[in-house]
Amino acid sequence: MIIDAHSHVHDPAEAHVRLLDEAGVDRAVLFATRPHPERAGDLAALRREMAVLDKALAGRAGTVEAYRPAWRELDAALAARPERFIGFLSVPLGLGPQETAAIVEQEVIGRGLRGIGELTPPPGGAGLIEPVLRAAADQGRLPVVVHGSAPATAEDLATLAALAHRYGDVPLVVSQLGGHHWIPAIELVRDTPNMYLELSTASVVFAVRLAVKEIPDRTLFGSDAPYGDPVLARALVERVTSPGEVRDRVLGGTIAELIGLG
C-alpha cells in the first residue's frame, strides 16, 4: 500500500482524491489546516492564505476555538472519503499538561483518529510540544508529527530530539526533512530510535537519497499537499531508491506500522 504520510485538507476534498489517484497513492495521512492555498486564483489571494499560514507558524491563534473550524473541515473530509484519508489532529500548544491531555483524549481518541499533528511550534518554541508527547504516551504510543521546515530552527530540531529521548515510546515525526537544516535532521533522527523523518518538499534531491540511506526504516514518503504534489513526491522517492523492501517501507510500509494498519 502506498501512503502519503503528510497532507492537508483540500477544498474540495475530491480535488485531493484526484491528485492521489494520479500519483497511484492508496491513502493519505490528513492534517487539519487553516490556510487553503489551493483556493487562491491569483497572487493577491495567495498572499491572504499565506498570511494565515505565517500566523499559524508563528504560534499565534493557538486557542481551542481557533482550531475548531479546521477540525470541522477535517471531520468532513474523513467522513466523505474514509477509505482514502487517515486522520491526524493538530492540537493547540502552550495549554498545560492537564488541558492538553483532555484535548488529546476528547478530540483525538474521541474522534477515532490515528495520531497528532502537524504541530507548529513557534521558532525557538519546540519545547512546547512536551505536554503533547506526554499525552500521546498516556494514550498508547500515538505518533506525533511536528513541522520541521522554516521557521523551525536547528535548535528546535535538537530540542525535539531531546524530548524524543525523554518520551521513548512515542514515535516523533519531523516533517519536511527538517527544511534547510536537513543535515542535522538526518543525524538527529538517525541517532534517536523513536524519531522519523518525513521527506516532503525537499529542495535538494540528494538530501532525500542520503536520508533514505542513513535511516531506511524511519523515512516516510509525503507530499505536504497542497504545498507539494503527490506525483512529484513519489517520483522523487522512486528516483533515489531501487525496487524492493526499502522503497516499499518508505512509500507506505513504515507509516502503516506506526498507525496500526494491517
TrEMBL record:
Keywords: Hydrolase. InterPro entries: Amidohydro-rel, Metal_Hydrolase. GO terms for molecular function: hydrolase activity. Residues 3-261 form the Amidohydrolase-related domain. Gene3D superfamilies: Metal-dependent hydrolases. Signal peptide: none annotated. This is Metal-dependent hydrolase.
